[in-house]
Amino acid sequence: MSIEIKNITKDFGDARALDDVTLTFGDDKIYGLLGNNGAGKSTLLGILTDRLYPTKGTVTVDGENVANNDEALGKIFLVAEQNLFPEDMAVRKAFDAAQLFYSAFDRVYAETLSEKFGLNTKKKIKTLSTGYASIFRLILGLSVNTPYLLLDEPVLGLDAQHRDMFYRLLMEKYGDNPCTIVISTHLISEAADLIEHAVIIRDGRILKDCQSEELTADVYSVSGPTGLVDAYLEGKHVLTANVLGGLKTACVQGRAGALPEGLEFSGVNLQDYFISLMEEEDRK
Amino acid sequence: MKTSFKPAFRYQFVNFLKSAAVFYLIIVVITTAFLIVSVHFAADSSMSFTGNGNAFAIGMFVVAIVYIRSDLRLCLQFGVSRRTAFISEILAVLSVSAILAVAGELLTAITQVVVLSNPNSFVGDVYQLIYMDAARVLPTFGQHMLSALINTGMFFCASLIGMFFSLLFWRLNKLWTIVVAIAIPFAINGVPILLVRLGFNLNPFIEWIASSPFCFALTSLTIAAAAALIDWLLLRRANIKARK
């Protein structure tokens, strides 16, 4: 049970959005698809759902190619930034349509969530604010009950309270009914606790594809007087370093080992790791 | 293997049917206006009303332009493959074309009965103009059915051509959109003239169509089939994106 992406390349004219991407989203896990703007995250999710046609490569869902395959596509629901619903469609009508297409769509739950978020289901989708348009799509995503749920910038335009509410609902859903969830987000620190497995993509290529803990376990932060830190860093794989006054902080790949006097060590979270990795790539 | 044809067809069919119903009501209002005018003024001047079939065909052409993109988007959002979405769209259009043709025929028949007593008024449709030589007699039930058949073909053909333009402009970039938009009227007007200038005689083909309503229907269906094929070629690798 998995989504398998094999050697996917996608060109838009002369620009290569994805370059020979091979990846697997396995069973009942929460994945984080992380990357800078223009890294190819949305393009990848578009290809997984057959909205975009790959230049090369294949995508299979539970062994079935997604291209022109209702069975495979019916197992995936993409909550995208883009709105694919008709302009004049009301929220309630969209729920009707979802009920028509997905036998497992939980209408009662969708209505309950609408009330919880304060979403007026009589309103037309095009008249919703950015935040409520996101809420509408999230409610659909949480209610369709497909084995694979893809979330592309799910909390776009949401206030802090609604973002928190969404993360809790997502965890509740995952707890009650485990499924594969892929979250593509720029708000890494907020989603970090949810993400079990991180896929970091940059310029259309996969940079990292492993458990979040593995990513951060091998990275630590060291800070202290510049001279001491510089001496300590010699021969080590430094991802990033910042100097503020006489103090230097560096993010280092590897195991910390013995701790010299006068230096402070700490672990790094997923967001810090991501930033360090991107900065290192920028330098390359 | 699971297919999402049924929900896709149901969704698209209802959409097309609603739009066709609205268009039908407009034509009913226009027809009623014609009847009122003809009853009051036809004694002074002769009046004819023969535009139902063509009007419905134009209506279906426009509706198809609008719906093909939004239906595809919604289907892709709800896990329906583009192939299933396209096939169900075609069958939805064909079904609504047939319903509209029969409903249109009913309207024409009623109008013809109402104006029968007035020798200065004539109500007909494409069938009557071509195959009954615009005779001022009431068509039989069989003739109405043949008229519905050619209208079904005509509406279906117009819809698929509408889809073609919609999909074509969806795939083109800005420059080619302008080029094609300018080229289309030239092509529509210029190609027949060019063919005649090049010595092609189109009369035998026109006479063949006029020889039987089945020839007319067959021609419509052939054009529709060709349009459907091109539509699919345009669609199968298109990037399905949201409205801008």
Task: Kindly describe this structure.
The complex is a heterodimer of chains A (284) and B (244). With 284 residues, chain A is of the alpha/beta class. Chain A contains 10 helices and 14 strands. In chain A, the strands form 3 sheets. In chain A, strands 6-7-8-3-9-10 form a 6-stranded mixed beta sheet, with helices on both faces. Chain A has a 4-stranded antiparallel beta sheet with strand order 2-1-4-5. Chain A has a 4-stranded antiparallel beta sheet with strand order 12-13-11-14. In chain A, helix 4 (107-117) runs antiparallel to helix 5 (130-144). Chain A is globular, with a radius of gyration of 21 Å. The relative contact order of chain A is 0.14. The model of chain A has no long low-confidence stretch (mean pLDDT 91). Chain B has one domain (5-171, 202-235). Helices cover 78% and strands 2% of the residues of chain B. Chain B has 8 helices and 2 strands; from the N terminus they run H-E-H-H-E-H-H-H-H-H. A two-stranded parallel sheet of chain B has the order 1-2. Classes of the chains: A alpha/beta (284), B mainly alpha (244). The A-B interface holds A 46, 49-53, 67-71, 73-78, 82-87, 97-98, 100-102, 146 and B 1-5, 7-8, 10-11, 70, 73-74, 76-84, 236-243.
Notable characteristics:
heterodimer, A: 284 residues, alpha/beta, Rossmann fold, 6-stranded mixed sheet, 4-stranded antiparallel sheet, 35% helix, B: 244 residues, two-stranded parallel ribbon, 8 helices
Q: What's the rounded overall pLDDT mean of chain B?
A: 90
The stretches of 5 or more residues of chain B where confidence is low (pLDDT under 50) are none
Strand order in space, largest sheet of chain B: 1-2
* CATH topology description of the largest domain in chain A: Rossmann fold
Q: How many structural domains can be distinguished in the coordinates of chain B?
A: 1
- Order of strands across the main sheet of chain A: 6-7-8-3-9-10
Determine and state the CATH class of the largest domain in chain A: Alpha Beta
General form of chain B: globular
Shape of chain A: globular
Give the biggest sheet of chain A.
Answer: 6 strands, mixed
CATH second-level architecture of the largest domain in chain A: 3-Layer(aba) Sandwich
